[in-house]
Amino acid sequence: MAFARRRVPPHQGRLTMSNSRTVILFWQLAILAAVLVIWQWGFEWSKALLPKAYVPKILDPYFVAKPSLIWQSFLRLGCFADTSGFAACIKGNDNNLWLATLVTLKNTWWGFLFGSASGIAAGLILGRSVFLARVFGPYIVALNSIPRIALVPLVILIFGLGDLSKIATAWLVVFFVVFFNTFEGTRAVDRDQIAAARLLGASEFTVLRTVVIPSALAWVFASLLPAVSFALIGVIVGEFIGAERGLGKLIIEAEARANASEMMVAIFVMMFVGILLAIAVRSLQSYLLRWQPQFEPSA
How many domains does the chain have? Predict the structure, then answer.
């Protein structure tokens, strides 16, 4: 006996999705509030309720500053609490929080852009040429096996302490991530589609533009999201080893003064920068891959 499939009215479906978003948002905010409460008062509660040997060190404000102290350090580093005024504070501090963030963001962006562009180009070229892939394959594998962090001192020695060395470090990290995904995506293109395009008289460039690149875009964007984070990591590591400005330099200076709250300020700013970059990449992915079902706008 066949049963008719029950159809859900559109307004009821939208209501269910809205309720689901509300529940998810509630739990996200509840978890955040619980973490902040434990972070702020957990160490005192642990000392009052537990034997000294069982008090978790991770809650010690000396190592991980309390949210209230982090907020105070943010106001100070961000020149909001300076008695001389915001403009005077910005002008008088060559590595204030906003300038350091701007420098790190700029270097991350250029390193990500150059690394992604060169990785995509190399992946497409080697993915479309079996001969070139066999010639350059061993060299790429050998270079990829070198830990990128080990190359940072060499990069700084070549390019100096300025922004160029941070961009080069980010490029080194991003290139291989994007290259391997693009290469595999190019090799995975349906051969029947390529044959059909050639049968219709398409040139090699037309095949690349209309068949290969659209088919490989999902592979490319799968690598771009982690590549953004890797670019930021590359820049910060470069700033740790040697830099004139940047969030990494702020962290190293705070570490030298054993100032956990200032370190946490720079870490949280880096987190927000990474989130914004990831959102930008995700938005671009949704636009360029809008023809795929998972990126179609919901009615």
Answer: 2
Are 171 and 231 found together in one domain? yes
User: Between 287 and 136, where is the model more confident?
Assistant: 136
User: How many C-beta atoms lie closer than 10 Å to residue 97's C-beta?
Assistant: 22
Render pLDDT for 32-88 as a digit per residue (tens, 0 to 9). 999 999 888 888 878 777 776 666 777 777 788 888 988 988 888 888 877 777 777
Q: Measured between alpha carbons, how far is 41 from 169 in angstroms, rounded to an integer?
A: 40
Distance CA 107, CA 167 (A): 5
Considering the entire predicted model, what is its pTM? 0.80
Give the domain extent around 34: 17-59
Query: How many residues in the chain?
Result: 299
Would you tell me the crossing angle of helices 97-128 and 130-144 to the nearest 10 degrees? 140
Q: How buried is residue 295: exposed, middle or buried, by Cβ count under 10 Å (0-12/13-18/19+)?
A: middle
CA distance 206 to 145: 35
Residue 9 domain flag: no
CB-based contacts of 295, cutoff 8 Å, min separation 6: 285, 286, 289
Alpha carbon distance 95, 170 (integer Å): 21
